[in-house]
# Entry
Amino acid sequence: MHAFRHKYQTMAKLKYKFNKETLSFEVYKTSILKRFKRSVGFFVLSVVVAVGCFSIYAHYFDTPKLLSLRRANAELVLGLELLKKDITTQTDKILLQMQLRDNNVYRPTFGLQDVPLTVRNAGFGGVDRYTSKYGKSTYANLLMDCALQLDRLQRKVYVQTMSFDTIAHNALLIEQMAECVPTIQPIAAVPLHVNSYFGVRVDPFGGGLREHLGLDFAGKTGDKIFVTGNGKVATVDYSFARSGYGNCVVIDHGFGYKTRYAHLQTISVRQGQQVQRGEQIGTMGSTGRSVAPHLHYEVLYRNKQVNPLNFFVNDLEPKDLVSIMNIDITEIKGDFD
Ligand SMILES: [Zn+2]
# Structure
């Protein structure tokens, strides 16, 4: 058994060649070099054929790895598109709500001017810096769009945080504000005696409808006039002409509030002076456009006259306020201007 296998294996390795002269098969011996050369040739040919086949295959069909990469790439692009959409619609909408609440509720509560939307939405200008960053990539436009939207968002959030900082600062000043807002009556008379209210009414000078942007308090020449909230004397005007406010003082209370005291007989404060609520600033008179001694009193918020009645929290009973607010202004008699 052993011997047979040995013989068989030996025979398998031999090659025979037909000798035409001897007309017999003879053992053909190839040199090692020849066999080596043949092997190398065969190997090279195999490699060439394999590479060729692979190239043709790869040209017409994606390899599984390439397929999965393509799929991942498509998912990434879709993800970016959705992200961009989210930034420009959802997030922006939430931020806009916050901006509107800030402008219409939070800031006015603390007497702050609103931040214009043009400031809130101001961009950085130019997209050059995105080009240098993403310009060479395949999805440059998409990436630059995303970066731009994110930058805009960051800018808006930054403005919003600044606004909240200001509000927080003002909230700390709320106590001070409570002392500054004009909430008491400017004359000592009790009960409060208002002759002319805020709004449109018949002009005491020759009739006709005319807007009256303050309250008129009747009294006697020389009655004491008191400042209605802490502040600083903004202007002191002397005028003895029979027109306008006459002798007049304007107090700046800060937080957007000012008060005007007109038709005064005398003035006992000077411009720039700090005044405390309840401090006397002058006496009642009838200077300027006035028909009888009275005080014309105005409250201004952001330089626009508002109804002073809304501020007399300490002096008016709610029922008085209601009856005053419901009064028919065309029936008011005894206007002083
Ligand atoms: Zn008046």
